Amino acid sequence: MLNIPSQSFPAPISQQRVSSSVGRSKVPLKPGRSLMDWIRLTKSGADLTGVKGKLIEVTEDELANHNKKDDCWVCIRGLVYNVSPYMEYHPGGVEELMKAAGSDGTDLFDQVHRWVNYESMLKECLVGRMAVKPLSVAKGMPIAKKVPVPLFKEVMPRYDWFQTDTNITVIIYTKEKALTCGSVIADLQGGVLSTEVILGESSYLLHIRLSHEVEEDVSVQTSCGVGKVELGMKKKSVTKWKELGLPLDSHDSLLKSKDRGLFYRKCTLVSITDVTHDTKLYCLQLPHGTSFQVPIGKHVYLKSVIKGSEIVKPYTPVFRRLIPEQEVTDFDSKNIFLMIKIYPDGALTSHIGNLQLGDSLYASNPEGQFSTSHLQGVTTLYLLAAGTGFTPMAKLIQYALKDLDGLRTRLLFFNRSEKDILWMSQLQQVAEEDNRFEVEHVLSEPSLEWTGKRGRIELSLLSDFMNKSTDDSKTLVCVCGPSPFTEQALTILQKLGFSEEEIHAFLG
């Protein structure tokens, strides 16, 4: 649906192009309707949402009403965008976009080019999020459980619970042997337990109002060998519970992750550390009743109400340091570290830049399409990053060096000048201490003393940096940066012979 203006990517023989070639072609764009013209329009301050920039909850009926060329809303992974302003800038043509007008276009989008950074491309067109359907309940009647048709009956998880005089334990049986701590998101707030267990592209949900009071803290343990999750809570009083509680919306259900909506929790800013002259490392502390770890390659949405409008932006968490500290556990289920570049006129970053310790931001569940399964069998990992596009690469570097012995990792890092390079000394230290990792910097506006590479991303530069293997070894290239950088990188990689399966472009 959202087609990057490239003449040659995806490859003509790729599954992406094969599966979507029928009835789909590029159309000539009018003068002044190029990608760069669209980027200029998004930065002009014009209201591209049609709702004056205030995020709203959109019902299915409301979405369906916006189905015309000059009033076209499309839902992608639960987020609703006004794509009317983008119509004339879309290389695939108006008809391609209109196929999803007034409806959920996620499946159509995934069929055509799932890898496109639509969140960045359409961020100024964001109308809001799809509303969760409320349950209709007669007064005095118990709430019936919402039981959607299981996606895969043979792997439908189940749960049970038991108690002692002082504790409540909820056990979820998933049969998923690849389960990790990063697969579980638990929130206990106001006596309501909300839990999501991520199972591939699906999510198993528990949502229940507990029958008695508990301390607002929840422990999470996973047994990956058998796919079991244990949630532990402490009773406030020694009382024998007759039931766990009252089921709420979507309780005990298995849904596609894109359909389950996002849950936000209020986080407290507990530390701020300078990284460069305009980029800082923010530590957000999760509420006492929240426990989750952001998996490698995933991002979260930060949300805040600014001047009466709700602003939402995606950010990829990093670890506290690129080089692990022995006394600090890499994965932290109580804190989120975010490396954020502050733009004085940024819709959200200007607000974040003025926050003080103790102030709050709302953070969502982890989102994103990347999985460490993409690294199975890979012998060479190339990372192409520009600016804060380095953030998803940080965890990837640690994971590759710590858990994948036979993997060689090479980072090509693009920045404007020396002062803009994130964690430069730490990157250099890692490269000196581990010969499986290499880093090269490319600067577009370096000082006269700079002896490294100069310029911007281009074919000759990538050709010198990466070798397209001709043997049976497996390569993965990860790309992240501003939209023009990512789009140009994808075009060059295709020209160098890399297939779609060998490339992952981070969204968000």
Keywords:
6-stranded mixed sheet; 7-stranded antiparallel sheet; single chain; alpha+beta; globular
**How would you state the average pLDDT, rounded?**
84
Number of helices: 11
Radius of gyration: 24 Å
Q: How many beta-strand elements?
A: 29
**What general outline do the C-alpha atoms trace?**
globular
Strand content: 25-35%
Strand neighbour order, sheet with most strands: 20-19-23-16-17-22-21
Helix-and-strand structural type: alpha+beta
Oligomer: single chain
| Straight-line distance between termini | 17 Å
Largest sheet: 7 strands, antiparallel
Low-confidence stretches: 1-24, 134-154
Concise overview:
The chain is of the alpha+beta class and 508 residues long.
Can you give a write-up of this model?
- This protein is of the alpha+beta class and 508 residues long.
- Helices cover 17% and strands 31% of the residues.
- The chain has eleven helices and 29 strands.
- The strands form five sheets. Strands 20-19-23-16-17-22-21 form a seven-stranded antiparallel sheet.
- The longest helix has 13 residues.
- It starts with 14 loop residues before the first helix and ends with a strand.
- The relative contact order is 0.11.
Write the layout of secondary structure elements.
Elements: H1 15-20, H2 35-42, E1 56-58, H3 60-65, E2 67-68, E3 71-76, E4 79-82, H4 94-98, E5 103-104, H5 106-113, H6 118-121, E6 126-130, E7 158-163, E8 167-173, E9 184-189, E10 192-199, E11 202-210, E12 219-223, E13 228-234, E14 245-247, E15 253-256, E16 265-274, E17 279-285, E18 290-291, E19 300-306, E20 309-315, E21 317-318, E22 335-341, H7 349-352, E23 360-363, E24 378-386, H8 391-403, E25 408-415, H9 424-433, E26 437-443, E27 453-454, H10 459-465, E28 474-480, H11 483-495, E29 503-505
Parallel strand pairs: 1-6, 3-5, 24-25, 24-28, 25-26, 26-27, 28-29
Antiparallel strand pairs: 2-3, 3-4, 4-6, 7-8, 8-13, 9-10, 9-18, 10-11, 11-14, 11-15, 12-13, 16-17, 16-23, 17-22, 19-20, 19-23, 21-22
